[in-house]
């Protein structure tokens, strides 16, 4: 499990004194805002609330805040619906905003050696970034994985949280939080985490202990499926959204054809990438875990399982995270898919 995180935001909370104040977790995307709340009830963390709302167009572009004031208003509107007294916030940075890479060493390098090596490899000056790292011993060498984010980006998100009159507890990479939570639930497995979002699909390949490789499939996000449905069926956005969730609706035979072509394109890219990564790192993938809006495509787990011959599933958060009794059972599926990163972010202090 990856235990390191950006040193600027070490935990400020004393979990034994959290009471019912708990932690809020922000997962801010270009298409939607997800917020999860974890409270300590009778000594254990409970997921007490989850909400998602639409992000204003172009407010966040590739993870970067493009319009601070609109985003501030956007989040506040979601929080008004949320109605929480919790003021402590964890936030996940999207993969777009971090550099994740590794290098090899014949010995365990000291801090200064690691800092120098990172400085040589990144396109920024080391004094302009926050960084963290972890060292994995191999048979004949040590592999040093590092995570880097620009200070100005992290500080912008810190300012956002402060302006909302909340307190930043931790800011970390979304895939770190997600990897750790999946490992706790399912154990150490070689896996691919497929974050099937609106603008793109993010792939994270993991050895039994750590992430080792990532790739983003641009132009294969859910918005492409939505655009094809709108273009071919001449329907509005709301109808297209409904058809994505339920392609059998209104008996549109053309929808199945659009779906089939879209999924085939995704499968081809997945298969090509898996072959490349497993060959490069000498891996055998045991599981594929689906998160994001695309994980709600009807029968998508079964389709990937049959096509790629790899066990594919969405995450069952209830195997580790207790849900409060007020959750609608039908809403749990949304939390397991589109809310997975937010929940993992909220639970990071309890893993």
From TrEMBL:
InterPro entries: ATPase_NBD, FtsA/MreB, PilM
Record-given protein name: Type IV pilus assembly protein PilM
Pfam families: PilM_2 (PF11104)
SUPFAM superfamilies with a match to the protein in the record: Actin-like ATPase domain
PANTHER family cross-referenced by the UniProt entry: CELL DIVISION PROTEIN FTSA-RELATED, ETHANOLAMINE UTILIZATION PROTEIN EUTJ
């Amino acid at each position: 499990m990856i235990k390191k995180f950006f040193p600027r935001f070490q935990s400020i909370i004393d979990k034994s004194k959290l009471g019912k104040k708990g932690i809020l977790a922000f997962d801010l995307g270009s298409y939607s805002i997800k917020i999860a709340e974890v409270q300590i009830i009778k000594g254990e963390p409970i997921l007490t609330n989850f909400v998602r709302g639409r992000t204003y167009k172009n407010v966040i572009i590739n993870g970067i805040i493009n319009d601070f004031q609109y985003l501030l208003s956007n989040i506040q509107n979601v929080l008004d619906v949320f109605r929480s007294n919790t003021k402590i916030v964890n936030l996940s940075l999207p993969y777009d905003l971090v550099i994740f890479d590794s290098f090899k060493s014949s010995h365990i390098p000291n801090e200064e050696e690691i800092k120098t090596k990172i400085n040589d490899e990144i396109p920024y000056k080391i004094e302009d970034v926050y960084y963290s790292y972890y060292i994995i011993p191999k048979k004949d060498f040590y592999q040093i994985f590092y995570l880097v984010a620009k200070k100005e980006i992290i500080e912008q998100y810190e300012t956002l949280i402060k302006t909302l009159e909340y307190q930043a507890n931790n800011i970390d990479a979304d895939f770190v939080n997600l990897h750790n939570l999946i490992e706790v639930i399912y154990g150490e497995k070689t896996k691919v985490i497929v974050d099937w979002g609106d603008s793109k699909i993010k792939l994270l390949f993991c050895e039994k202990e750590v992430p080792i490789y990532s790739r983003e499939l641009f132009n294969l996000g859910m918005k492409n499926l939505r655009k094809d449905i709108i273009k071919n069926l001449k329907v509005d956005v709301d109808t297209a959204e409904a058809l994505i969730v339920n392609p059998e609706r209104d008996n549109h035979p053309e929808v199945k054809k659009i779906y089939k072509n879209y999924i085939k394109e995704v499968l081809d890219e997945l298969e090509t990438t898996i072959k490349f990564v497993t060959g490069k790192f000498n891996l055998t993938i045991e599981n594929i875990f689906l998160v994001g809006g695309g994980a709600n495509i009807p029968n998508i787990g079964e389709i990937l399982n049959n096509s790629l011959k790899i066990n594919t599933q969405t995450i069952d958060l209830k195997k580790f995270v207790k849900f409060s009794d007020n959750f609608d059972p039908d809403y749990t599926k949304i939390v397991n898919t589109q809310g997975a990163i937010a929940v993992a972010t909220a639970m990071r202090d309890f893993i």
